[in-house]
Amino acid sequence: MTIAGSLPSRRSSAPVGTITRGTTGVNRLRRSDRWLVNDGLVATRLREAPDPLVVDLGYGAAPWTTFELAARLRTVRPDLRVVGLEIDPARVVPGRDGVRFARGGFELAGLRPVLVRAFNVLRQYPEAAVPDAWARIQSNLAPEGLLVDGTCDELGRRCAWVLLDRHRPLSLTLAWDPFTVERPSDIAERLPKVLIHRNVAGEPVHALLAAADRAWERSAALAPYGPRIRWRRTAELLRANGFPVRDYSRRMRDCVLSVPWEIVAPNG
After folding, report:
1. pLDDT (0 to 100) of residue 22
2. In which order are the strands placed within the sheet that holds 81-86?
3. Is the pLDDT of residue 181 over 80?
4. Rg of the Cα trace of the chain?
5. How far apart (Å, rounded) are the C-alpha atoms in residues 85 and 148?
6. Domain ranges in the chain?
7. I need a labelling partner for 197 at 20 to 30 A (CA). Which of 19, 48, 51, 123 fits?
8. Is residue 4's pLDDT more than 70?
9. Strand partners, 160
10. pTM score > 0.85 for this model?
11. What is the CATH number of domain 1-167?
C-alpha cells in the first residue's frame, strides 16, 4: 500500500520506509539487469570494488528478481554477494545460491553496498519523499557506490530508472520492448517518481519525450526494417538536434534512451 508522509528520523534504529504492494514477477527486471551488466560505469565499479556487495532493496512478495540479478551480475564479478532487503518481515525468506535476505529499508540494514537496486519502491511514495529517500540510501553506499531507482510495468516491457552516485543523480535511462511500444513517449507512464509528475509542457523531461516522438515519426521510412533499426535512426536524429543521447557501441535488443541527468532534471 501507499503511505504518504515524511520518512522517519535518521536516529531511528528500525527499518526506514513503509510496506509497499510487493508485486513482482519472474524476469520482470530483465531490461534493467541487461543494462547494468553492459553499462561501463556500473561494471567498472563492480569489478573494482574491494567488497562486491549488492543490495536489492524492496524485492517484493517473492525474491525471483533478486536471484536473477545475482546470476546476471556475476557475469561481471563472479564473487559478487547479493542481499535482498524487505521492510515487511513476512517477505524475508531463507537464502540460497549465494543470495541472502534480511529485513531492512532505506537505511540498508547497516550494509555498505557498491550497488543498490530499488525498483518499483519509490513509485509508491509521494514525490516529496524522494529526496530524503535518495539521501538516506546514498549516505549508506560504499565510497564508489551507485543507486538505481527505477520503475517498470508488470511484465517488464517498459522500464525507466535514474542512476545516482553518493552525491547526485547521474543519468536517466528508458528501456522498452521494441515490439510492444508504439512511440517513445509511451514510456512516460513508467517514469520514476521524481519525474512522473513532471511530464508537462515546460519541463525538460517532457521536451525530451516530445523530441523523441518527433524523431521517431521522421524515421518512419525505416519501419519495414524493424523497430530497432528505426530507433537507432531516431537516436541519431535526437543527437543531431542537441540531445546527448548515449550511443551504445554494442547492439541492444531493447530500445534504450539514456541521457545525462541535467537534461531532464526537474525545474524548480
Report:
1. 65
2. 99-103, 81-86, 53-57, 115-119, 146-152, 158-164, 169-176, 255-260
3. yes
4. 18
5. 15
6. 1-167, 178-268
7. 19
8. no
9. 151, 174
10. yes
11. 3.40.50.150
Is the distance from CB of 25 to CB of 152 less than 8 angstroms?
Answer: no
Could you count the other beta carbons within 10 Å of the beta carbon of residue 1? 8
- What one-character DSSP code corresponds to residue 185? G
* CA dist., res. 122 & res. 130, Å (int): 7
Three cell numbers, residue 190:
513508467
Distance separating alpha carbons of residues 257 and 58, to the nearest angstrom: 25
pLDDT digits (tens, 9 = 90+) for 12-65: 468 887 777 767 778 899 999 999 999 999 999 999 999 999 999 999 888 999
Do 204 and 265 form a contact (C-beta atoms < 8 A)? yes
For 45-69, give the DSSP string: HHHH-SS-EEEEET--SS-HHHHHH
pLDDT of residue 7 exceeding 60, the answer is no
Could you tell me which of 11, 7, 226 has the C-alpha nearest to residue 105?
7
Count of all residues that appear for the chain in the document: 268
Label each residue of 110-135 as H, E or C.
HCCCCEEEEECCHHHCCHHHHHHHHH
Which amino acid is present at 190? R
What's the confidence (pLDDT) of residue 248? 82
Report the pLDDT value the prediction gives residue 6, as an integer from 0 to 100: 38
Angle made by CA atoms 231, 236, 237, in degrees to the nearest 5: 95
Rounded to whole angstroms, the Cα distance separating 133 from 150 reads 13
- DSSP code per residue over 208-244: HHHHHHHHHHHTGGGGGG-HHHHHHHHHHHHHHTT--
**Average confidence (pLDDT) over 194-206:** 97
Q: State the pLDDT at residue 13.
A: 64
State the helix-helix crossing angle for 30-38 and 64-73, rounded to 10 degrees. Answer: 20
Amino acid identity, residue 42? V
